[in-house]
Write a structure and sequence with these properties.
The chain is α/β, with parallel strands linked by helices. It is built from 14 helices and 17 strands. Strands 1, 2, 3, 4, 5, 15, 16 and 17 form an eight-stranded mixed sheet that branches. Strands 8-10-11-12-13-14 form a six-stranded mixed sheet, sandwiched between helices. It starts with 20 loop residues before the first helix and ends in a 29-residue tail after the last strand.
């Protein structure tokens, strides 16, 4: 849900591991130590200097695992054969009476009459439907956790219009019971975003919907980070009410542009430092080898016999570092934006600074520029029918999703932005299908399932790993009791990487948040502790 109260607005490669080596490979006083340089800048003698200088990471050699690496591991499970279901692969195919085989956590095959490997678990899906796991690209679970108290309100760092330095994962509470109810609705992957109080709210994090004590145990390994940005009413209302910028939409745009202009300057400072450091390394190497003949004379004339001092790196700035990674294409922009005219302006801002917007979120007027979004390869993450709760949401229509889906390269996504809606995203998609049908825009189930699976995977940069049932991809699968776009359908079983994470037929085996353990009125509480 879009939270209209000022403190609670929502909305909206490779993370640190692929970190703008072009930006930060030289960002190391530690790197200077690797080069054999002492803090005073004196130079060691002999070939050791050349050897250690050669060990300094170059511009493309960043291999840092990141300060907050995922600890999630695919669990060891026997092969799984789901047999005889109606399979929506997520690629646009519907296969009747088909099988899905998962081995070692990955899809091995999809087809008919597949042989079950030895010791395989066989699930009878006759009369049921099978789909990829649902991906919610816009969730605030964990950062606006339940119960909704001030103590669990951690989604907006509403202290500055630009807080690109904050990371949503540092607010996620893994014990949020909402993760469990989302799992029961077939959600296997989520992007957790900061709220929309700010122009630039901070980094998102992609999670696997698995029970864990720590956020690192849920973190999708090596998933690209996102950057949450927000246009329109929320930032100008929050900061305008404090008599500071932005207080208008033109103030919003000026704020984005200044932030990225500062990031470009930050990039240039690091580029200059890397060039100077490379020159310093070259001088170290020449001196270590002693020089000879004409080269030695040249070195003497150039004054290379003087003591060498390494260049001083710029001060590290976490806010500008994130924005520079966006400019380098390593962080994907996920932008809360309602109006078509503002989306068009933001595409122009992205062109000015050379970054790409992966998806506009909420996007109630995306239907007005559906062709342009398709041409630019930009997705729109939308509700089925939320509209009218503020001025920028006034012109929403219920045919929005199928109209954005209509162009050849259209990328329509159903998102939740709600701890309640995330439990029935399949039904949200069904509403949009129905409204499209009435408008003459027929969307069959095999196409509509992409709104929930492959399209959000594309916007997250994970389409080669999840989002469809294809050999080699992760075994995230939902077995539905009926057509998932029926109001009567329930997720009977949910698998993540081939491991059973939810089974409606065995409620006692459901994962339970530690927060709910022993709480009166829950299934986890002993009878003696339940309220009368």
């Amino acid at each position: 849900m879009t939270r209209v109260q000022a403190p609670r607005q929502s909305g909206t490669v490779a993370g640190w591991r692929g970190r703008s080596a072009a930006l930060l490979a030289g960002l190391t006083l530690g790197g200077l130590a690797l080069a054999g340089v002492t803090p005073t800048g004196s130079v060691p003698d002999g070939t050791a200097a050349a050897d250690s200088a050669a060990s300094v990471p170059g511009p493309e050699a960043s291999t840092s695992p990141g300060p907050f690496p995922s600890t999630y591991r695919v669990p060891a499970t026997p092969p799984l054969l789901i047999r005889g279901g109606t399979v929506l692969t997520g690629t646009g195919e519907r296969l009747d009476d088909a099988d899905v085989l998962i081995v070692e956590g990955r899809v091995r095959a999809v087809g008919t009459h597949l042989a079950a490997p030895p010791e395989a678990r066989v699930v009878d899906a006759h009369g049921r439907w099978v789909t990829p796991g649902i991906i919610d690209i816009h969730s605030h679970l964990g950062v606006y956790a339940s119960p909704a108290t001030r103590g669990t309100d951690d989604g907006n760092e509403a202290t500055s219009p630009v807080t690109a330095n904050v990371w949503a994962e540092h607010s996620v509470w893994p014990q949020d019971p909402g993760f469990e109810t989302a799992l029961e609705g077939g959600v296997t992957t989520l992007q957790i975003l900061p709220g929309s109080a700010n122009l630039i709210g901070g980094r998102s994090v992609v999670l696997k919907n698995v029970a864990s004590t720590t956020v690192q145990g849920m973190k999708f390994p090596d998933a690209p980070y996102g950057l949450k940005m927000a246009c329109g009413e929320n930032p100008k209302r929050v900061y305008g009410s404090r008599h500071q910028a932005p207080s208008t939409r033109m103030g919003d745009v000026a704020g984005y542009r200044q932030a990225f202009a500062d990031a470009q300057d930050y990039q240039r400072q690091w580029d200059k430092y890397r060039r100077e450091f490379a020159e310093y390394q070259a001088k170290l190497a020449r001196r270590a080898h002693g020089g000879s003949g004409a080269h030695a004379g040249t070195a003497a004339r150039a004054g290379e016999d003087k003591p060498l001092t390494p260049p001083t790196p710029p001060k590290r700035d976490l806010k500008l570092e994130t924005l520079a990674e966006v400019l380098a294409g390593q962080i994907r922009v996920q932008m809360h934006c309602y109006r078509a005219d503002e989306m068009a302006i933001m595409l122009d801002v992205a062109d000015e600074f050379g970054f790409k917007i992966a998806a506009f979120h909420h996007a109630v007027e995306a239907y007005k520029i559906a062709d342009r979004l398709a041409e630019r390869g930009v997705c729109a993450a939308m509700w089925a029918d939320w509209w009218g709760f503020k001025m920028e949401a006034f012109d929403g229509i219920q045919e929005n999703l199928p109209m954005v889906d209509r162009p050849a390269n259209g990328c329509a996504i159903v998102h939740s932005d709600s701890e309640d809606g995330i439990q029935r995203l399949n039904q949200e998609a069904a509403k949009a299908i129905a409204h499209g049908e009435r408008a003459g825009l027929s969307v069959p189930p095999e196409r509509a399932i992409r709104w929930l699976t492959l399209n959000p995977a594309k916007a997250l940069g994970l389409e080669d790993r999840v989002g469809s049932l294809e050999p080699g991809k992760g075994g995230d699968v939902v077995v539905w009791s009926a057509n998932p776009f029926s109001v009567y359908a329930l997720a009977d079983q949910v698998y993540i990487d081939g491991a059973l994470r939810f089974d409606r037929a065995h409620p006692a085996a459901r994962p339970r948040s530690d927060f709910l353990l022993g709480q009166p009125g829950t299934q986890s509480a002993p009878d003696s502790e339940k309220a009368p």
